[in-house]
Amino acid sequence: MTIKTGDHLPEGKLAEFIETETEGCSLGPNTFNVSDLVKGKTIAIFGLPGAYTPTCSAQHVPGYVQHAKELAAKGVDEIWCISVNDAFVMGAWGRELKATGVVRMMADGNADFSKAIGLSADFSAYGMGTRSQRYSMLIKDGVVSQLHVEAPGKFEVSNVETMLAHM
User: Fold this and answer.
1) N or C: where does the chain have the smaller number of CB atoms within 10 Å of the terminal CB?
2) Topology adopted by domain 13-165
3) Domain residue spans of the chain
4) Is 56 a catalytic residue?
Protein backbone atom coordinates (compact mmCIF):
# COMPACT_ATOMS: atom_id res chain seq x y z
CA MET A 1 0.00 0.00 0.00
CA THR A 2 1.32 3.42 -0.94
CA ILE A 3 1.56 6.11 1.70
CA LYS A 4 -0.86 9.02 1.27
CA THR A 5 -1.55 12.45 2.67
CA GLY A 6 -2.63 12.21 6.31
CA ASP A 7 -0.70 8.97 6.96
CA HIS A 8 2.03 8.65 9.59
CA LEU A 9 5.45 7.66 8.29
CA PRO A 10 6.11 4.01 9.12
CA GLU A 11 8.86 2.88 11.47
CA GLY A 12 12.10 2.51 9.63
CA LYS A 13 15.80 3.21 9.58
CA LEU A 14 17.89 5.38 7.31
CA ALA A 15 21.66 5.87 7.31
CA GLU A 16 23.62 9.07 6.87
CA PHE A 17 27.34 9.63 6.43
CA ILE A 18 28.37 12.05 9.19
CA GLU A 19 31.19 14.40 8.16
CA THR A 20 31.96 15.81 11.61
CA GLU A 21 31.87 13.78 14.79
CA THR A 22 29.52 15.12 17.46
CA GLU A 23 28.07 13.81 20.69
CA GLY A 24 25.85 10.89 19.70
CA CYS A 25 27.05 10.80 16.08
CA SER A 26 30.35 9.23 15.10
CA LEU A 27 32.29 10.05 11.97
CA GLY A 28 31.09 7.88 9.07
CA PRO A 29 27.80 6.06 8.54
CA ASN A 30 25.22 6.43 11.32
CA THR A 31 21.83 4.71 11.35
CA PHE A 32 18.78 6.59 12.61
CA ASN A 33 15.18 5.67 13.44
CA VAL A 34 12.92 7.72 11.20
CA SER A 35 10.34 8.17 13.97
CA ASP A 36 12.98 9.78 16.21
CA LEU A 37 14.12 12.17 13.49
CA VAL A 38 10.68 13.45 12.48
CA LYS A 39 9.24 14.01 15.96
CA GLY A 40 8.21 17.66 16.35
CA LYS A 41 9.76 18.71 13.03
CA THR A 42 8.66 19.75 9.57
CA ILE A 43 10.74 17.91 6.99
CA ALA A 44 10.81 18.18 3.22
CA ILE A 45 11.68 14.73 1.84
CA PHE A 46 12.40 13.85 -1.73
CA GLY A 47 13.13 10.37 -2.97
CA LEU A 48 14.90 9.47 -6.16
CA PRO A 49 16.17 6.41 -8.02
CA GLY A 50 19.89 6.79 -7.48
CA ALA A 51 22.95 8.80 -6.65
CA TYR A 52 24.92 10.11 -9.62
CA THR A 53 22.05 9.48 -12.04
CA PRO A 54 21.50 12.30 -14.59
CA THR A 55 18.20 13.94 -13.54
CA CYS A 56 18.91 13.42 -9.85
CA SER A 57 22.35 15.04 -10.07
CA ALA A 58 21.56 17.83 -12.51
CA GLN A 59 18.12 18.91 -11.29
CA HIS A 60 16.54 17.17 -8.30
CA VAL A 61 19.18 17.62 -5.57
CA PRO A 62 20.47 20.99 -6.84
CA GLY A 63 16.94 22.42 -6.79
CA TYR A 64 16.46 21.61 -3.11
CA VAL A 65 19.95 22.92 -2.27
CA GLN A 66 19.28 26.19 -4.13
CA HIS A 67 15.87 26.75 -2.51
CA ALA A 68 16.72 25.58 1.02
CA LYS A 69 16.39 29.07 2.49
CA GLU A 70 12.91 29.47 0.96
CA LEU A 71 11.83 26.17 2.48
CA ALA A 72 13.23 27.23 5.86
CA ALA A 73 11.35 30.54 5.63
CA LYS A 74 8.15 28.49 5.19
CA GLY A 75 8.84 26.47 8.34
CA VAL A 76 10.86 23.50 7.06
CA ASP A 77 13.36 22.34 9.70
CA GLU A 78 15.24 19.83 7.54
CA ILE A 79 15.46 18.62 3.95
CA TRP A 80 16.15 14.94 3.25
CA CYS A 81 17.16 13.25 0.03
CA ILE A 82 16.41 9.51 0.22
CA SER A 83 17.92 7.07 -2.24
CA VAL A 84 18.56 3.33 -2.37
CA ASN A 85 22.32 3.63 -2.07
CA ASP A 86 24.74 3.11 0.79
CA ALA A 87 25.69 5.90 3.20
CA PHE A 88 29.22 6.18 1.74
CA VAL A 89 27.86 6.86 -1.75
CA MET A 90 25.24 9.29 -0.45
CA GLY A 91 27.89 11.16 1.55
CA ALA A 92 30.24 11.45 -1.43
CA TRP A 93 27.40 12.54 -3.71
CA GLY A 94 26.27 15.14 -1.19
CA ARG A 95 29.81 16.57 -0.96
CA GLU A 96 30.07 16.71 -4.76
CA LEU A 97 26.73 18.53 -5.08
CA LYS A 98 27.56 20.90 -2.19
CA ALA A 99 24.53 19.59 -0.29
CA THR A 100 26.41 18.84 2.95
CA GLY A 101 24.87 20.81 5.80
CA VAL A 102 21.90 21.80 3.60
CA VAL A 103 20.25 18.53 2.56
CA ARG A 104 20.58 15.38 4.64
CA MET A 105 21.63 12.65 2.20
CA MET A 106 19.82 9.63 3.66
CA ALA A 107 20.68 6.12 2.51
CA ASP A 108 17.97 3.47 2.21
CA GLY A 109 20.50 0.75 1.40
CA ASN A 110 18.13 -2.22 1.09
CA ALA A 111 15.10 -0.18 -0.03
CA ASP A 112 13.35 -1.11 3.23
CA PHE A 113 12.00 2.41 3.81
CA SER A 114 10.99 2.84 0.15
CA LYS A 115 9.12 -0.47 0.32
CA ALA A 116 7.48 0.45 3.66
CA ILE A 117 6.00 3.63 2.16
CA GLY A 118 4.98 1.79 -1.01
CA LEU A 119 7.25 3.83 -3.25
CA SER A 120 9.83 1.29 -4.35
CA ALA A 121 10.28 0.49 -8.03
CA ASP A 122 11.91 -2.28 -10.03
CA PHE A 123 14.80 -0.83 -12.04
CA SER A 124 16.20 -4.28 -12.92
CA ALA A 125 15.82 -3.52 -16.63
CA TYR A 126 18.49 -0.83 -16.12
CA GLY A 127 20.75 -3.03 -13.99
CA MET A 128 19.83 -1.14 -10.80
CA GLY A 129 17.55 -3.61 -8.96
CA THR A 130 14.99 -2.27 -6.50
CA ARG A 131 15.10 1.49 -6.15
CA SER A 132 12.92 4.36 -4.98
CA GLN A 133 10.34 6.00 -7.16
CA ARG A 134 10.83 9.71 -7.66
CA TYR A 135 8.65 11.64 -5.19
CA SER A 136 8.52 14.47 -2.68
CA MET A 137 6.60 14.79 0.55
CA LEU A 138 6.26 17.28 3.34
CA ILE A 139 6.18 15.73 6.79
CA LYS A 140 4.86 17.52 9.87
CA ASP A 141 5.55 15.73 13.15
CA GLY A 142 5.62 12.38 11.34
CA VAL A 143 2.45 12.95 9.28
CA VAL A 144 2.41 13.38 5.50
CA SER A 145 0.92 16.78 4.67
CA GLN A 146 1.99 16.86 0.99
CA LEU A 147 2.82 14.01 -1.39
CA HIS A 148 3.87 14.28 -5.02
CA VAL A 149 4.73 11.04 -6.85
CA GLU A 150 6.17 11.16 -10.36
CA ALA A 151 4.95 9.09 -13.27
CA PRO A 152 7.68 6.69 -14.46
CA GLY A 153 10.48 8.53 -16.25
CA LYS A 154 9.11 11.98 -15.37
CA PHE A 155 10.42 14.91 -13.31
CA GLU A 156 7.46 17.28 -13.07
CA VAL A 157 5.93 17.23 -9.57
CA SER A 158 8.64 16.17 -7.09
CA ASN A 159 10.76 19.26 -7.67
CA VAL A 160 11.23 21.93 -5.02
CA GLU A 161 9.16 24.44 -6.98
CA THR A 162 6.07 22.23 -6.73
CA MET A 163 6.60 21.74 -3.00
CA LEU A 164 7.00 25.48 -2.43
CA ALA A 165 3.91 26.24 -4.50
CA HIS A 166 1.79 23.94 -2.30
CA MET A 167 3.00 25.38 1.01
Assistant:
1) N
2) Glutaredoxin (3.40.30)
3) 13-165
4) yes
